[in-house]
């Protein structure tokens, strides 16, 4: 007993000398891959929103989304590029860091943008490690993969990541990074039996490679339902119907933050662009018509005696000159 007390006392003394707290610091509890897995096993729908900066990340946390995806789609939806392939890796990492500065329960997952893994597996591994080290809030990378009959390389790459303990979500179906080889932004797995078969086999091979979850984009809902029932990992759908384990939407689409037509699979939950335009127009009009700033509401006061002393001082200096 005395030996135990002495050990504890020594540990406490050492912690004090080093400047460490004996008690671990308390922080906001965030979702983990294990907690997402538990939701999946309970068949509780998983919610995912994209975010592209600190503000949108804060919104997703406040809404208690299970996961935040920093997707390279932000190149088009947020930064005005014509394609997801246009954004540089450094620019993308800037946005990942911004997203990760927000605190809350949502687990952060991050795309591997085009060009970060295609040149070689070793380059891809180094870039995946770079992404994971951007913040301790980054829990997983997401990798787009083509049909397994044509894209054996990416499956090998994913296998290498998983074998090194880097968590991966495999993304199949419509893969925007391969939009040219797919012939455009089109539904996948809806033309013939062979296409459906290959898509289902690709999902199976992603699980075999070690992916802890699958993202299914723009595929018929019956195909997505079949894949979800056939696999033992969560499926996150975008344009893949209600049978997936969870859903993801691009935040600028669902909140109506930009102009233009929305994809069929998007449900718009707000019209922030219209509200912003209206609010800014009102501001411009108020300034032009001198309603803002209001002297009583928006300005700061100074004591009269101080102001009087200042004016007297100014006049005195003028007279001296």
Automatic annotation (TrEMBL):
One of its GO terms (cellular component) is mitochondrion. It catalyses: (6R)-5,10-methylene-5,6,7,8-tetrahydrofolate + 3-methyl-2-oxobutanoate + H2O = 2-dehydropantoate + (6S)-5,6,7,8-tetrahydrofolate. CDD domains: KPHMT-like. One of its GO terms (biological process) is pantothenate biosynthetic process. The keyword Transport does not apply. It holds the Pfam family Pantoate_transf. It comes from the Eukaryota. Belongs to the PanB family. This is 3-methyl-2-oxobutanoate hydroxymethyltransferase. It comes from Zygosaccharomyces bailii (strain CLIB 213 / ATCC 58445 / CBS 680 / BCRC 21525 / NBRC 1098 / NCYC 1416 / NRRL Y-2227).
